Amino acid sequence: METEHYITEQQVAKITALSLSKLRSDRHLCKGIPYHKIGRTVRYRVSDIEKFMTDCRIEPVARS
After folding, report:
1. What stretches in the chain show pLDDT beneath 70?
2. String of b and e for 8-47 (b: at least 16 CB within 10 Å)?
């Protein structure tokens, strides 16, 4: 069984180029990247970030 890796919101912001305020706003609005909250600590699972980024991918279609 592979262990999941969790990272801080600062690390997520750096990876995704989203601001901390955007991540916090999304959490407040119950949207965006899934997260875990332990007390006041927020952590994101790396696999959830990868899925979120994949789901947001837009594949350009060539026009004829």
Report:
1. 1
2. ebeebbeebebeeeebeeebeeeebbebeeeeeebebbee
